[in-house]
UniProtKB/TrEMBL annotation:
Pfam family, one: Acetyltransf_3
Entry keyword annotation includes Transmembrane: no
Keyword annotations from UniProtKB, A to Z: Transferase
Source organism: Janibacter limosus
PROSITE patterns membership: GNAT
The N-acetyltransferase domain, residue ranges: 46-186
Name assigned to this protein: GNAT family N-acetyltransferase
Gene Ontology MF terms: acyltransferase activity, transferring groups other than amino-acyl groups
Classification via InterPro entries: Acyl_CoA_acyltransferase, GNAT_dom
Length: 196
């Protein structure tokens, strides 16, 4: 069974295999591989490449960047919010990514939402997105969010089914994006037993 974990260097090989499967297409929930510096807020920027990520030290740096992004004090470009990046895994196999943005900007309210996710092509239609979304809805509740906004492209029937299966209530469509509000899931998990 798949589960969500914080980014970890042990998934380097399967992460890179998944990167190749995606063929360079943007992946919701995985974050950018490059962001320009923004000196006005003390953000140094970063650039990762597929070739560079074959180096274990460079891959560890990617992991550090992703994990640091959930901390409110981490410098980030203007218009970006703290975000918890999680990887969907089964055993030692990276299957995809899911991200939980801690708050909404005007743009995220219109287009991006709180949660974005993507599943590598060879792992699709096996329930991994639904499982990961349920787990992230629990994490969102632990963070104090009562409901979250999730969007998908109008023509993405699989994502639409995943969101609606999680209880998503359709609000409207804006600029080609369907917008759903989803109630988070309260758990009785002890506070120290968060995602690994």
């Amino acid at each position: 069974m798949s589960l969500i974990v914080r980014p970890d260097p042990r998934y380097q090989t399967s992460y890179l295999e998944a990167h190749d499967e995606f063929g360079g297409v943007h992946r919701d929930g995985d974050g950018d591989l490059a962001q320009a510096a923004d000196p006005t807020v003390g953000f140094d920027g970063f650039t990762f490449t597929r070739e560079g990520l074959t180096d274990p030290e460079e891959f560890r740096r990617l992991v550090q960047v992703r994990r640091a992004d959930e901390l409110p004090e981490t410098p980030r470009p203007n218009g970006y919010v703290p975000c918890t990046y999680l990887w969907i895994v089964e055993g030692d196999e990276y299957l995809g990514s899911i991200a939980l943005r801690h708050e909404l900007t005007d743009f995220l309210l219109e287009q991006g939402g709180h949660i974005g996710y993507s599943i590598r092509p060879t792992a699709r239609r096996q329930g991994h997105a639904s499982t990961a979304l349920r787990q992230v809805l629990e994490l969102a509740a632990e963070m104090g969010l009562e409901r979250v906004l999730i969007t998908c492209d109008e023509d993405n029937a699989a994502s639409r089914a995943t969101i609606e299966g999680a209880g998503g209530e359709y609000e409207d469509s804006r600029q080609g994006k369907r917008r759903y509000w989803v109630t988070t899931i309260a758990t009785d998990r002890p506070e120290g037993a968060r995602i690994g």
